[in-house]
Amino acid sequence: MKGFRFSNFDPRSSGKTTFEQLMDLFMQLLNYTSGDANEALNWLTQLDKKYQLTNEEYGMGDFIEDLKEKGYLDENKANGEFKITPKTEQGIRKRSLEEIFGKLKKTRSGDHHTFKPGLGDDINPETRPFQFGDMLEQIDFVNSITNAQVNHGIDSFMMNEDDLVIRETDFKTQTSTVLMIDISHSMILYGEDRITPAKKVAMALSELITTKYPKDTLDIVVFGNDAWTIEIKDIPYLQVGPYHTNTVAGLELAMDILRRRKNPNKQIFMITDGKPTCLKVGRKYYKNSFGLDRKITNRCLNLAAQCKKLKLPITTFMIAEDPYLQKFVTEFTETNQGKAFFATLDKLGAFIFRDFESGKNKRVY
Q1: What angle do CA 192, 195, 198 make, to 5 degrees?
Q2: What is the C-alpha to C-alpha distance for residues 8 and 338, in angstroms, rounded to an integer?
Q3: Could you tell me the end-to-end alpha-carbon distance of the chain, in angstroms, rounded to an integer?
């Protein structure tokens, strides 16, 4: 009989190969370098020198060669510089999704369903008697035949309407979401990196929607002095610029996008430090970085009211703790009758995903 084999506990051992351990670090570093593979590899090399991540059998050169062979890196033969591939971009999104969902506690709520039965994709275990108007594809023939055998016997088999039972399916809501990300300079001010958690959330949310809810739509809007959309594949490369915060431009673009969407359920998620400081008037920019300018904030509040009329709820994820900024966000949220979360950076992903999932259950028009 084979018994148990014990060995000394090594807290650094995770059961992963050296490549897998380096890959985890490389993917994390790419978030901070905005997709710059050369800078990420340079940082990883410095970490290797300090913490001996590799050994004589497997070094950084082997890791780089494996990245190229496995399709994670492309090398420019002319200058020797590296660039990440679409496979790496998808890998970053998947890891962001796993990282954020791994922190969420399991609950029974929020699997993107409504509480109303109807035609849908998922079969409900509950059955009910057949009613006039039910479609043939809803009939549970196994249970219906069993009922006919019990009610009429096997020798004189027959099936009546009373024998038929219907298997319900749960209707999945379809939602169009616009995720607004503030890329103004304040997102990296005061030694606090706010843009990297925002990018991780955007990548995780995009991966969730494209894989689990393919009928939903997700548009990413970034806003600084102006607002524009980016593709999902561009999220890892997103950087903060020398911009003010034109929240009005971001909201106007989000509203325009959702106006063209056919889904009945629409929503806006906005990640910001909560301080609009810019407004475009004609061809010129009206800017004021000091305090809250009523000329700017009033335009924001007017758009919040318009979104309310259009049934576009806005959920604001506030990542700054200034009381006067939180007061503005509260006023903005009350005007829209939306929601606001004053989230810390480490809890940002959990807040957004819980709200996204729970909102799918409740918002049915």
Answers
A1: 125
A2: 54
A3: 64
Please tell me the distance from the alpha carbon of residue 107 to that of residue 179, in angstroms, as a whole number.
25
User: Which strands sit side by side in the sheet containing 122-129, from one edge to the other?
Assistant: 113-118, 165-172, 122-129
Q: Which residue from 138, 148, 129 is spatially nearest to 168, judged by alpha carbons?
A: 138
Domain segments of the chain: what residues?
18-84, 117-171, 175-362
CA distances from 41 to 29, 35, 63, 65 (A): 8, 11, 10, 12
Fold of 175-362: Rossmann fold (3.40.50)
How many residues make up the chain in this entry?
365
Q: Quickly tell me which residue has 């993107």 as its tokens.
A: 112
Residues 6+ apart with CB under 8 A from 292: 275, 276, 324, 325, 328
* Helical (H) or strand (E) element with 268: strand 265-272
Residue 218 DSSP SS3: strand
- How many CB atoms within 10 Å of residue 257? 17
Q: pLDDT (tens digit, 0 to 9) for every residue of the chain, 365 residues total? A: 556 666 565 555 567 899 999 999 999 999 999 999 999 999 999 999 999 999 999 999 999 999 999 999 999 989 999 999 999 999 999 988 888 766 554 443 334 333 333 344 445 566 788 877 777 777 888 888 888 888 888 777 888 888 888 886 655 568 999 999 999 998 888 778 889 988 988 898 899 888 888 889 999 999 999 999 999 999 999 999 999 999 999 999 999 999 999 888 999 999 888 789 999 999 999 999 987 999 999 999 999 999 999 999 999 988 877 888 888 999 999 999 998 888 777 777 777 766 776 665 443 33
Tell me if 288 sits within 8 A of 265, measured CB to CB.
no
Cα–Cα distance between 288 and 179 in angstroms, integer?
25
> Has this prediction a pTM greater than 0.70?
yes
Strand 284-287 with 314-318, pairing: unpaired
Say which DSSP state 346 is in: G
Alpha helix stretches (DSSP H) within 213-282: 247-260
Task: Please tell me the distance from the alpha carbon of residue 156 to that of residue 158, in angstroms, as a whole number.
Answer: 6
Cβ atoms of 165 and 130 within 8 Å: the answer is yes
Nearest to 188 by CA among 180, 198, 178: 198
Using DSSP's 3-state secondary structure scheme, residue 143 falls into: helix
